[in-house]
Amino acid sequence: MIIVMKAPTDEQVDLVVRKIKEFGLDANISRGTERTVIGAIGDERKLDQELFESLPGVEQALHIVKPYKIVAREWHKEDTVIDIKGIPLGGKEIQIISGPCSVETQAQMDLSAQGVKAAGSRLMRGGAFKPRTSPYSFQGTGVEGLDIFRKAADKQGLPIVTELMDVRQLDAFLEYGVDVIQIGTRNMQNFDLLKEVGKVNVPIILKRGMSATISEWLMAAEYIAAGGNHNIIFCERGIRTFETYYRNVLDVTAIAVLKKETHLPVIVDPSHAGGKAWMVPALSRAAIAAGADGLLVEMHPNPCEAWCDADQALNPQELINLMAELRGIAHVIGREIL
Ligand code: PEP
Ligand code: MN
Fold it and tell me: pTM of the entire structure?
């Protein structure tokens, strides 16, 4: 059961928690700005809905219909619009986040940021810590990469999106003012990491695990939300199937399903889905047409020199061309790309 309280006092919250414990269940408190949501964990059949609704400060007590709560549209009908340094994500305006797979050098990031800006993309991506399949591959430039990224993006006034792999790096992310923390496909169910990013006040991009079901993905987001951080962006990046022609299969269906199940924004990464630069425009068009709120696209100033994922990066001119095409599609479906 979950108990929704509207601007409750500490005493009102304590009373609800005490009642839950009297029935032998545990309570999980998630404080939002307007509402506090208390989850009763255990055999909820023991709990009486009317009893909880009679307690002061309680707006609603409901038996769980679905295992996820805070992220569910059931609980929050309107689309959530996340504000990233004044840039809205999740509303009418579609955001294209672009930049290289990895932070390499200051010169490469400066050129990348210029390319991002020239295309009209309003947010920049780049990985300083890289989750590589082989331990002998380039592992990322680490904290130095965060510094390089911040400097390059600041020159163009771009908020930065970068992947967090380990909670030990979180302080550095906060120190460099990372604007959006990305949780990669390999960490979608790293529950301890999800709990930690649930405590910070930074929007999170939660990529879909490469073999994760929609329900597992929603539950992973619920881990973040349960900690109090409700600024979560889902990112479909392709799933693993029997097909080997391309890197992953972009699950376009997931966009429609998520838009129904959650009020949170949904974006698509066409680069890691297809794994080839030539596929990126087609997959991007499909994603926008299907209702995605944004894209996460890899672009490198000189793709054939990229230290990671060279084959799937657009060059700066290709990003400009793609943005122009996508503006047309956005317009047709009543949305816009600035
Ligand atoms: C990335 O975006 O840099 C990345 C590693 O993506 P994914 O986690 O989807 O593989
Ligand atoms: Mn990559």
Answer: 0.84
